[in-house]
Amino acid sequence: MRAAGDKRTWTLAPTRAGRRAFDAMGAAFAGINALIDEAFPGTDIDRAAKGLRRLIGLLEAEGEE
Asked: What is the pLDDT of residues 1-32, one digit of tens each?
């Protein structure tokens, strides 16, 4: 549907099925996120993310050879 304040734009809304899927996905990720927070407390998650980004870069470079 068109946005109320600006007729040049559209407003998108999820269907009921889309909302249910989003809710189910959120519940699944909440459990995984809790485990990640437990495994990597404080700034450990930042160090892990930095290491993973470095690993991705190395893998991409190796794939270009």
From this structure: 777 888 889 888 899 999 999 999 998 899 99
How far, in Å, CA of 64 to CA of 57, rounded? Answer: 11
The total number of residues shown for the chain amounts to 65
* Distances in whole angstroms, Cα of residue 33 to Cα of each of 27, 28, 43: 10, 9, 15
- Sketch the domain layout of the chain as residue ranges: 16-64
35-51 pLDDT per residue, tens: 999 999 999 999 999 99
Is residue 46 within a helix (H) or strand (E), and if so which, with residue range? helix 44-64
